[in-house]
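Project standup — Tuesday

K.O.: blocked on the structure for the chain from last sprint. Re-posting the sequence here as requested.
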Amino acid sequence: MNRVCIIGAGSSGISSCQVLHARGIPFDCYEAGSEVGGNWRYMNDNGMSSAYRSLHINSSRQSMQYATFPMGDHLPPYVNHEQAARYFDAYVDHFGFRDSIRFRTEVTHVGKTPTGEWDVTTRHRDTGEEHTRRYDAVLVANGHHWDPRMPDPPFPGADTFKGIQLHSHDYRTPDVLVGKRVVVLGIGNSAADIAVEGSQVAKRMFLSLRRGVHIVPKFIFGIPVDHLTLSWASVVLPLRAQQWVLGTALRFARGRPSRYGLPKPDHRILAAHPTASDTLLSKLGHGDITVKPNITRLDHDKVHFADGSSEEVDAVVYATGYKISFPFLDSSLINAEENWISLYHRVVPPRHPGLYFIGLVQPIGAIMPMAEAQSEWVADLLEGKAKLPGYAEMAKEIDAYQSSLSRRYVKSSRHTIQVDFRQYLRELRKERRVGARRQGISVALPAGARRPGPAEPVDVPSTAGSAAGSGRSGSTGAAG
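H.V.: unblocked you, prediction finished:
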């Protein structure tokens, strides 16, 4: 086995580094920034992190942690960005592969050679020096929350609007909203966080949304909510039963969203990625945030809405999501049009052996354990311990996945890479077993499908968050 290239040293990229390092597979990891952590590194100098100062993970630390490196019980159930970044640093140093990461180095092009290998061109961000190296395989872990998606086409009048317009990707602190009349467009996790935080300093705060959503608190009956949604029931119970149980619990704990002025959701819970917030409903109930329908146009110092109303506005924050993009890959290789990319088990492009995507999933839960499991499977393939099926079988699985998405989820660019946390991990474990049999190897994977972790949870220093409030989903990662 020659060297493998890993693109990105965010939470997904470093999981691939750890697995390959433990297997003795030589690799180079390229990271545009100066440190690991990707989206969880506040003010990351890679220029791609969307972390804001008050960011907390929306998945509990128990569902976020790597199987090989548990987080300490002294940390809160929902860690902030600084605690997450310290954890990633401790992870890298504990396993000892930091020297294999080439920092301040961006990948500018990845090309397939006639012999099936991969030429990777890199540029050092300080010196401008470029190099092209050949690899047997490339693991793409550059994340999918770094390329902001703005309204396309722009709203009429956007070019003449006198106020501030920014994407939530560029939001860092509420200072930019002090004393202003603000519209936040969107109802995802970032939109909820910015509207709640901004309402404490803004003159007026409006939350504009196209459709109703289910608001999920971070705790139900004193328990982190993902301990319920990611429990054994998510595998054993059929979807309708899960929806009934969670929906009943939410109505009992918080009531229906429409009682807080939000439009009634046109879908069942778990049929769209839920918005996690313990404070949004309270702010709505206090009148600190006013709900508005979708924007129709901007007019100098006004914003007009779909119900015919208008408001004088000084700032518009577009919390409108992200585009999945790979600027270093030719579109002839991979085309993520409308955020859809055809991958076998969300990792393997069938027509391009040796190219793998790590962490390119959107779970109800955290990406980190999934990226770890994906990396274990890819390592099996690299070592010849497992074999992929033929193209027809891979295409069949991809079609079945796409059909399942259309049946379950609201049609949206946000739901093109959605997976169920426990079911997807089980899917990967099964594929590893089947792949080993294809290769003629008999294996018995443990339930977690990973190597045992350290005897004691890692002692990550506990640091207080710089501001209160919940934050973006644990699935985010500017560099994976």
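K.O.: great, moving the ticket to review. Confidence is low (pLDDT under 50) at residues 447-458, 461-480. The first helix runs from residue 11 to 23.
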